[in-house]
Every structure is written in structure tokens, then in C-alpha cells.
């Protein structure tokens, strides 16, 4: 079914998709910005069509950024009979978003700010290389969380954002830096300006993302004062990621990635370069380059990002087995290469090398334990410790009797289709958004998904999702608990004792070097 909405600030009528069973409407593929040419800074689009008498069709999802095709169902262990849609791609029309709202937004628009709905802006992940979790794929379809919010009496509006990725987000040294981040800035500004026309509250925006999406969200918090979005983001949710996962890199690193793609282009056709190559040839060069991860580029506005605290409330989560992304790569590595990665002899922390190796079972005479320990180290160094530090830094700024500024949770529900895969990276997307609930028979996962949505909806509405002095634990087997931060059970669920060892390394730059030696070239979504 379709519906129409006469949108004031956009100056046109929108035709959207209506799901009466769930009581939601979706306005899909709305362009929030234009890309004048490859690698150019985008320009916000506030009037999607030239004539107010026309109707803008928003019933189909918009195109995503061109990318190497990856089966997202592999990591998620989606049933083999589930066929993911083929999503259109367009490097110049990929700056679009989807607005999902309770069907009540079609009533006369709330005139009072007190009746407008809180807004969630979702930034997908995918190693800054691909789209892991679009609305079209159902992985991050906002329908269920919006439907549940209305059912719970705490309705929200959710916006999913597409943005430029991989080489298309990185021009040469004459182009604007960090095009993906700039694209998202424009999307945030667009939402602030136009969301009231959907019944949303422009002064009550929660920014959220998972994995690389969380990296970008953290970056927005750090750079908000310089980008102009400082007052636009009221609170933020970081799921399985932060800038610690993928810190900004110097220009030389970005150039090396671009040069690798450029070299593959030359192999395909010596007349082509990054500026003039047809998009399909660019994607083929990307595929041949074997680059699976991209990075933000260092800028002055990122300086001292590790020490920043924010006025916004934070919700920070991780899952039990984040390092699954490197599993195949680590298992294929030799024991010798892992031992070399942990060599600290040329660092100021050489005296801690033995202690670090013992903490993670890095030993030449136990190859399997050594590889498992390397995965545990990646998990703790890039996910667990940063999540703990972010929450701690926010709480340290909290004055006595102030409301909590950080909420910490862990997600330990097993994969519903292959429990032996564990509570792995990105399984929280399956649980939180419930896009595949109809294909799920695991009652524990269904129960955990409902609890996640309920608690996150509370946070988006400005309430405390749980006791801020405790850590919320979702799963396994559908359980929900609130754990003491220094308690025994949290220590059994996470390697909290190992964090004491990692904290001895100060700012963590040495640990980052260990991680890079371990992980470089070994990440894959096909784990």
C-alpha cells in the first residue's frame, strides 16, 4: 500500500510505502545531497523536485555507493533459502536516506514541540568499504523498532543514511577530506531541517551506528564543533565500534590505498585513472586490489580524540566475539608471525612483553592457544577496552546526583541459526532490528531482540534504559540482567582482568602496532 504526505519544508508531496500490519510508513530513497562530480564535496538538497505540484515517489529504496559485492548473509548465517535483494548502485545518487515513522505521522502535523517524536539517525557499517546493513537488505530495516516504539507508547522516527564508501569517499590531496563524514554531516543537517514535516523533533536527535558506522558516529561527536553539528546531536549510541577500532590515518596511508586501486585500473586499461574510469571498471579494480577496509584521514579536528568527553549521553555496547572478522585470517597465520606481532623489544614497554603474552596465551609450543589468544587480544584491544574507556570517561565528568551520562551494555545472545558461531560481530543487528524474525525459531534470540528494542527505545526517548551504575547484559538464551560493574559475573563474561594488563600500556599506541601486525590483510566479512 502507498500513502501520500504533503511535506511543508520540502515543498512537495511525498508518496511512501505503508505497512498497515505493523502500523508504519516508509519514505524511501529521499536524496539529501547531490554529488557534482567524482570526489567532489556534496551539496545539500532541500528541494528534491522543482515543482510543488509534482509528487516525489518514495516507495523504492535508493541506490547505494558502488562497491564490491559481499554476501552479508554469510557472516550473519542467514538461512540459505533467504535471497538478499540486488541493490542498485550509483556514485552520484547514493546520498539518500529512508524515513520510517509510525503511521500516525500522517495525521495533522504536531504543532507543539512537546508532541513531536524523538528521532534516530542510523549510520550503517561495513569497514568503510561496503554497505553492511541497508534498509533494503532487512539487516537494518527500521520497521520493527519503529513499530515496537509505537506499541510501547514511546514512538520514534528512524532515518537510515546512505553515504559514499571505499575509494569514492577519498579524493586526491586537492579534494575534500573524509567525504563519507561530510556526507553524513549533510544528512544530519537535512534531518534537523526537515524531520518536523514527518512529525519528528529536530531538537531530539539520537545518532547511532554499528562497527564502521559507530566509528563515524564517534568521529561526529569529536568533530561536531567544527562541522556545525554540535547542537544537532542530543545523544549517541555506539555499537561494536569507536574511533579506537579504526583511528584516523595520515595521508600517506590513504594515498597507498588509492594507489593500489589506481594500479589495478592501469592493469585493466592503461588509459584509465581514478578520475575518468567508468564506475564498473572502478569496482573491478577495487575487487582486484583486495582492500577490505578503508579509514578516515587525519585532520587537526581529530587531535586528542582519545581524551574527548561529550555533553551528549552515550550508550556503548559490544558483543562477545567481535574478532570473528579476523578468525580465518588468524587461523591461516603461522605461529611465528603471531609471536613476531607481539615482539615489544624495540618499544618502551619491552618489560611488559612476557606479561602480555602470558595474559593471552601467546606461546610457540601451543599453536592453537596462540591463535585463540590473538583473537582474544584483538577483541579486547579494539572493542572491549575502548567501550569501557568511553563509558568511564563520560561517567568521570558526571557530578554527584547528576543523571547518568553513559550506559554500558554487553550482548551475548548466540546466532539464532548457528549457535556455534557464538555472539559474533553484527549479530546484534539481527536481534535489534528483527528483520528476519519471521525466519527465526530460536525463542531466546526473539526474546533478546524484543528486550533490546525496548531498552534502546527508552534511551532514544531520553529515559534511562537501565540503572546507569550497572552493565546491562542481553542474552544468552533470552536472559536479561543488570550486572555490577566490578562483579564476578561481568568478569566471567568479559576478560576484565586482561584489561588491567592492557591499561598498563598507556595511550595504547604500542598495542595498536601489535594489532596492525596481527590483523593487516586478515579481515573479512566471509568468516
Automatic annotation (TrEMBL):
EC class name: hydrolase
E.C. designation(s): 3.1.1.-
GO molecular function: hydrolase activity
Family annotation (InterPro entries): AB_hydrolase_fold, CarbesteraseB, Carboxylesterase_B_AS
Keywords, sorted A to Z: Hydrolase
Positions of the Carboxylesterase type B domain: 16-471
Pfam family, one: COesterase
Similarity annotation: Belongs to the type-B carboxylesterase/lipase family.
Name this polypeptide is given: Carboxylic ester hydrolase
Organism: Microdochium trichocladiopsis
